[in-house]
Write a structure and sequence with these properties.
alpha/beta; four-stranded mixed sheet; about 40% helix
């Protein structure tokens, strides 16, 4: 889901959580949703991680800017940007490099554990 502004992001989170009431966890890959989730959780009376485990994918700088309490996988925009610029400069400066096939490089994921996950709660019957 691609909402990126409030209040649309908050409404979307409410709709998703309403649609999946048995969900025990969220993987947040949208920074706007990660920033909105604390207030949505509060409005719903959901505690993290007791009621809902949460892991995000964003940068440590983003987490600090919004005081996000969730564990997250570092998206490393600075590292990725540096790698891309080095590759671009290499291709611009070298005729032989321009002829090389495109390369895909991965960075190792780094988990910042902030205690926002727990074992799934038992299902109510």
């Amino acid at each position: 889901y691609g909402e990126s502004r409030q209040p649309a992001v908050g409404r979307l989170l409410h709709r998703l959580l309403d649609a999946y009431p048995a969900a025990t966890g969220l993987l947040i890959n949208n920074e706007a949703a990660a920033a909105a989730l604390p207030s949505v959780s509060y409005e719903r009376g959901q505690r993290v991680p007791e009621d809902l485990s949460v892991i995000g994918r964003y940068s440590a700088d983003f987490a600090a800017t919004f005081s996000l309490p969730y564990s997250f996988v570092e998206s490393a925009p600075d590292r990725l940007g540096s790698m891309a610029v080095r590759q671009l400069v290499r291709r611009v400066e070298s005729a032989s490099a321009r002829k090389e096939p495109s390369v895909v490089r991965f960075i190792s994921p780094e988990l910042a554990d902030r205690g926002s996950t727990a074992p799934p709660r038992p299902h109510s019957r």
